Amino acid sequence: MPDTTLSLLLKGLGETVFMTFVSGFFGFALGLPAGIFLYLTRKGQLLEHVLYNRILSVTINIFRSIPFIILIVWMIPFTRILVGTSIGMAAALVPLSIGAAPFIARLVENSLLEVPGGLVETARAMGATPVQIVTKVLLPEALPSLINAAAITLIALVGYSAMGGAVGAGGLGQIGYQYGYVGYDAFIMNSVLVLLVALVFAIQATGDRLSRKFNHR
Amino acid sequence: MIVIQNLSKQFRHKNQVYQALDKVSLDIAEGDIVGIIGRSGAGKSTLIRCVNMLERPDEGAVMIHGRNLATCTPKQLADERKKIGMIFQHFNLLSSRTVFDNVALPLELDKTDKATIHRKVTALLEVVGLQNKADEYPRSLSGGQKQRVAIARALANDPHLLLCDEATSALDPETTQSILQLLRDINRRLNITILLITHEMHVVKSICNHVAVIDQGKLVAQGTLETLLKESQHPVIQQFIHTQAMSLPPDIYNTLQPEYTPGLHPLVEIELEGNVAFDSLVNTFHSQYHLPYKLIKADIEYLGSTNFGRVLLHLQGTDDSNRNALLYLNSHHIKNTIRGYA
């Protein structure tokens, strides 16, 4: 393998990993509070509020129904305002984060729903505030499940970022698109696939291991 | 002093209205152990959850040291709750925390400093006999040990009141007794008032000084255990006092005849309801009627000076003395049933 090909692939891998994890981070920064809020405002929960819950739920559903490739294009004006450009890695982070956030919110909501209701009640009986219940009871108890949710999200983001590559975001997706779809270089295309598969396996394995480590149920 | 005044609570499910509590009033003296007993669905769980406002009553007041919890601000309520420990049927320990950290949780919520937490938690684990389990996770504990951790946690904030919501219902009989023993100890040593709800009469018999019976959302009787057992004719209480008719040992069951024929002796089941002591009864049979008998089975509980339960006697005297003994029972209003002749 020529050095240029190797460095091309490594650069692409680095960009994909960067986009995946950074957008994963921003996705969680938006999705985690949204998921907690969704859970808390549900009927019968701590801060039950039908209207707020409905508004957030509908917003999330709308964003989740937009195909990612369309979301990228649709968000271009917003992306331009935020990062000044609509092409390149930095620009891709915006739709990636926004695309992942509602997905993460639903996963977080589900993870929290798995926490036995009796634990929340016990904390209430101890005089815990809602913030304390979230930080001391709900999140630690849901941690193994949240880690699984993070792994699922990151893997989805690997795929999304490859899609972003097709519209100039860089990363393995762009390499695969240019050399594979456009140029039909079988070697580079297959190398890209192998790297993507390896990345997905690594994320899943790490997620599984961490989740097991924190699971004391 | 805890005063529960006219608590009412309705639940609406679709178009059905269900009265879970109906004007319940109850006074609890400091240092007392009060048991509320009732069948499932009687409202006992709602009642105990209303005491610390986990469930908001529609009407009524819960006065603790003169403050009405029903009208407290959230901040005041949180402070009052810190002084009320609570334990549950399913323990409700955090699986993500070790035994030590579970007990430390209420202290953390109060932002207690680390050294104090360490000192208090260590002492509490000693009280419940789990000092060597401090670093284990709840999943490796037995049910009884989990409830001990929950008790230690409930005591962490030095409560004046401990609420027990069916705390022994998920435990086997032996463990139940050891947990009840622990609760009694805590009540005596730390002078903590205990309010417990249960559907099991033996729990109430084991540790409660005062008892209230709840049925369909209403308190139908309350008082000391003895007076309640002696005096109350309410069917729910009767149901809790009286166990099923005694089962017969197989060899007797197989030879038992429903009708008297000469040469057979009556098998009589006697109910002791506190109006006669078992030993004086058998004494009378022996000295007054010179009646030989065989004690087949007995299930007697002593409460203070009285006893309750059932005994199964096979009378073995002459026809006359057998008849006289039965007449004696009837004339002294001692409930008895002839199960057959053998």
TrEMBL record, chain A:
NCBIfam families: PRK10782.1. It is a multi-pass membrane protein. Residues 13-205 form the ABC transmembrane type-1 domain. This is D-methionine transport system permease protein MetI. Keywords: Amino-acid transport, Cell membrane, Membrane, Transmembrane, Transmembrane helix, Transport. The gene is metI. It is found in: Cell membrane. GO terms for cellular component: plasma membrane. It comes from the Bacteria. GO terms for biological process: D-methionine transmembrane transport. Part of the binding-protein-dependent transport system for D-methionine and the toxic methionine analog alpha-methyl-methionine. Probably responsible for the translocation of the substrate across the membrane. Its main location: membrane. Belongs to the binding-protein-dependent transport system permease family. CysTW subfamily.
UniProtKB/TrEMBL annotation, chain B:
Residues 2-241 form the ABC transporter domain. CDD domains: ABC_MetN_methionine_transporter. Signal peptide: none annotated. Gene3D superfamilies: 3.30.70.260, P-loop containing nucleotide triphosphate hydrolases (3.40.50.300). SUPFAM superfamilies: ACT-like (SSF55021), P-loop containing nucleoside triphosphate hydrolases (SSF52540). The keyword Cell membrane applies. PROSITE patterns: ABC_TRANSPORTER_1, ABC_TRANSPORTER_2. GO terms for biological process: amino acid transport. Pfam families: ABC_tran (PF00005), NIL (PF09383). InterPro entries: AAA+_ATPase, ABC_transporter-like_ATP-bd, ABC_transporter-like_CS, ACT-like_dom_sf, MetN_ABC, MetN_ABC_transporter-like, NIL_domain, P-loop_NTPase. The keyword Amino-acid biosynthesis does not apply. GO terms for molecular function: ATP binding; ATP hydrolysis activity. Keywords: Amino-acid transport, ATP-binding, Cell membrane, Membrane, Nucleotide-binding, Translocase, Transport. GO terms for cellular component: plasma membrane. Belongs to the ABC transporter superfamily. Part of the ABC transporter FtsEX involved in cellular division. Important for assembly or stability of the septal ring. This is Cell division ATP-binding protein FtsE. It comes from Filimonas zeae.
